[in-house]
Amino acid sequence: MGLSGVALAAAASHGGDTHLLGNASTMCLAHAPVLLGLYLGHRAFRSATLAGLVLGLGTIIFAADLVSRHFSGDRLFPFAAPAGGMLMMLGWLIVAAGAFLQRRDA
User: Fold this and answer.
1) For position 80, what pLDDT does the model report?
2) Residue 60 near residue 83 (C-beta atoms within 8 A)
């Protein structure tokens, strides 16, 4: 995810219109450390695995749609970016819900 974010930032800075690739880069770079943290803490944080899967999938779909629109001029699939965005929001809600669940024994 981090690699993709850096690569997309580089492509955005050299590709003229930075709007779509820049946004895709931002989402990848914002979620990469969170996904790493969820992985590292998955044994103690009850909702980490589900949150990581949902956040990761949402970020991939969102970024892939923006990249597809930039390079091909067409969407990945209808409503891909909103679906990816909703998955990212759901993932963050799952992270927040984990704060209220009983902690696993590490």
Assistant:
1) 95
2) no
* Rounded-to-integer distance, Cα 35 and Cα 52, Å: 6
- The answer to whether 55 touches 92, Cβ cutoff 8 Å, is yes
pLDDT digits (tens, 9 = 90+) for 46-59: 899 999 999 999 99
In this prediction, residue 4 carries a pLDDT of 93
pTM: 0.88
Q: Which residues contact 80 (CB under 8 A, 6 or more apart)?
A: 61, 62, 64, 65, 68
Residue environment code for 71-82, b if the CB has 16+ CB neighbours within 10 A, otherwise e: eeeeebeeebbe
> In this structure, are residues 45 and 38 in contact, taking their beta carbons and an 8 Å threshold?
yes
**16 SS3 class:** coil
Helix (H, G, I), strand (E, B) or coil at 79: coil
The rounded Cα 81 to chain-centroid distance in angstroms is 11
